[in-house]
Amino acid sequence: MNESTLLLVAVLVLLFPAAGAVIAGACGSRWLKGATHWPVILGVGGAAVTSFMLFGEIHHRLSATHADDVLEPVRLIAYEWFSAAQGHWFNVEFWIDPLTVIMLVTVTFISLLVVVYSRDYMRHHHHPERGYERFFAFLAMFVFSMCALVLGGNFVLLYLGWEAVGLCSYLLIGFYYPKPSAADAAKKAFLVNRIGDFGFGIGIFLIYITFGHLDYHTVFEASRMALAGDGAGLSGILGITASEAPGMIGLITDRLPVIALLLLCGAVGKSAQLPLYVWLPDAMEGPSPVSALIHAATMVTAGVYMMVRCGVIFTASSSVMLFVAILGAATALFAATIALTQTDMKRILAYSTISQLGYMFLGVGVFAASSAIFHLFTHAFFKALLFLGAGSVMHAMGGIIDVRRFGGLRKVLPVTFVTMLLGSAALSGFPLFAGFWSKDEIVHHAFMQHPLLGIVGLVTAALTAFYTFRMMFLAFWGEERIPDGVEAHESGKWMLLPLCVLAIGAAGAGFFGVHVEAGGFLGFLAPEAGGAHAQTAFHHMLQSVVQPFTQAIHNTGHEAGHVGGEAAGITAHFARHWMMYLSAAIAIVGIILARCFYVTRPWIPMLLRSTFTRLHSLLYNKYYVDEVYDLTVVRPLRGSGSVCFGIDEFVIDGLIWLVTAVPRLLGYVGRLVQSGLVQGYGLSMATGLAIIVIIVLFA
Amino acid sequence: MVGLAGYIAVSALLFAIGMVGFLTRRNLIIMFLSTEIMLQGVLLNLVAFSRLHGQVDGQVFGLFVIVAAAVEAAIGLGLIVLLFRRRGSLDTEELATMSG
């Protein structure tokens, strides 16, 4: 494939879902009606096919590159977009590298499955739900926006996609807008994301005033050169004179950590990390396919994508990286503890998503960017699967999703049960399933960076296994309990097919990041270890993308195993496998504990609840974070809003009333003349005539 | 032979009668008739001065005014009939909807 074909394919990736959205939106309500899913399935399917073509091309180029060479990202300019000051143009440009294609393939493939699933999910008794065509149009619009976010070759397009996916998220959370809770959740998601995006926007402005450019190539190259102290290279790339270069190096190195923190602010909002995670659990008010696609598999990972993409900027400061790691670890643990006591199936999964996103942040923070992306990849499969499974349960239970109100659904929903079981195994890190490999890598790298971070990772893993299987045991084990008046039935084939495909992914996606190595896990399977070791397919592909991270870790020399001699390497090797057995054991113990608590000895959780009442209510009420925010942020802001309203109402409107009083007074006097009686008007005319006659006669 | 003063006196008398009628009566039809009388007063004036100056212009103008008055009477009466149908009354006190 040459460059112009590549450009065509990249444009098609965007055009297919865009066309689907336009057709579904324009023709859906009038002509297509119950068939509106077709243009969207075809559009997203087209995007998936073209994404796979891009993937194949990049994979091909990668295998043609020599081992020591770095695969340069493909930069394609579609057209000049608009000009800014100094006569230079912002382009609609694409940046295609392994990270781009991995993200594209993940996004479009999962989207396709979710769209197929929605065909049956958005129907009740074979009749399309109200707003059926609106739903599909938004879904296609989301896929378009997400692809634009991932493909974009500059920060303008990144921001555009970033905000567009936020908009689609808002529209879809509020899909059932007549329901007040859905409307509130949509508003909350939008406003909380505004806080993060405010910082993100300022970060991009700061990039522009520092570099004078917003395209990835210039910004990343200039940062790299400034960090390396390469004045000549910097003056070449930024077009400044050699004498300005030293000052520029100082400026850039000073500002990079600030830029990183501002960009992080955006990532924290979008990827629901502490303290801005509060919108994600509420976002479950949207239909389940939306939760699966947008609020679990794809959009919320945009923050992680962005941080890996801007690796040069983030790795410039080790304290920023440490902050990211601590933030991720804290979020992972925090959200996992909340998930322990929740009873709404989708909320349990929402907190688990926050927790898993915390893992990804932790991975980025400990310089294991390719592991973070690997976890993003595997997580997309099993979390989408779990949400779609929860949707299937909800469908069968007539909209009820509280795990206390049903149970023993194994026989009723056999396919949903088996696929969700596979998804749960992957989420809880059961050996050989997808989540096991990716999570373990992150925990391993966290241990290398700081033992405390690793321990937090392991504790969270144990909690994850526990709460995931708590949910499974409550919903599917025990005696069969179905809410009154509900005719439980397994979902249709349009819903079961995506579940099965995702189940295969949840079971097998991890093997992309594993390679056969003697002495590995179970004797032959070894995960990625980074550095000099043999690389797995997934990590080999990302090698060129995560170079800033590997470079940074080599420079600081934190991971002795990677830079040390043979002996250190062997120690790390053993530590790695010991770690794998440990985390496998932790996952299994978590699952057994959950079984013990919720199947064989149900008195234990009751006893615990009555013993630790306060702890339980603290967790059940999600640490009262929403209440605290309400008290400290929402109410003061609302109060100041009322003050402003009062000023507007009384002071400003009062002044305007005074100004208008003058003409009003004049008008009042004039009104007295207008009696409405014809005789009155006649009399005034006669009087006027008489006056004129008198003037003419006697003047 | 009646002099000019006589014509003007009759003309002024007609105008005054019409005006008083217009200002004092409440019935729209009577008021309308009063305006017609005022118009005739003015017309008489025109014709008298035309005669005085020995020119025919004033009389021609008078004929035009009569035509215009006929047309105006047709329209005015039509409007009054419509108003009566709608309101059931022609009392101007009851028609004071333009009151400010």
What does this structure look like?
The complex is a heterodimer of chains A (699) and B (100). Chain A is mainly alpha-helical and 699 residues long. Chain A has helices spanning 3-32, 37-64, 98-121, 132-151, 155-173, 180-211, 216-228, 231-238, 245-270, 279-282, 288-297, 302-309, 311-314, 318-339, 345-365, 369-396, 414-427, 434-449, 451-476, 493-508, 537-542, 547-556, 560-563, 566-600, 603-611, 613-620, 625-673, 678-698, and strands spanning 74-83, 89-96, 123-124, 127-128, 514-520, 523-527. In chain A, strand 3 and strand 4 (127-128) form a beta hairpin. In chain A, helix 8 (231-238) crosses helix 9. Mean pLDDT of chain A is 89; it is low at 558-565. At the A-B interface, helix 27 and helix 28 of A face helix 1 of B.
Could you name the key traits of this structure?
heterodimer, A: 699 residues, mainly alpha, two-stranded antiparallel ribbon, B: 100 residues, 3 helices, 78% helix, 0% strand
Count, helices of chain A = 28
Distance between the termini of chain A: 103 Å
C-alpha end-to-end distance of chain B: 53 Å
Oligomer description: heterodimer
Uncertain runs of chain A: 558-565
Shape of chain B: elongated
Proportion of β residues of chain A? under 5%
Largest sheet of chain A: 2 strands, antiparallel
Structural classification of chain A = mainly alpha
Instruction: Tell me the strand order in the biggest sheet of chain A.
Output: 1-2
Number of DSSP E strands of chain B = 0
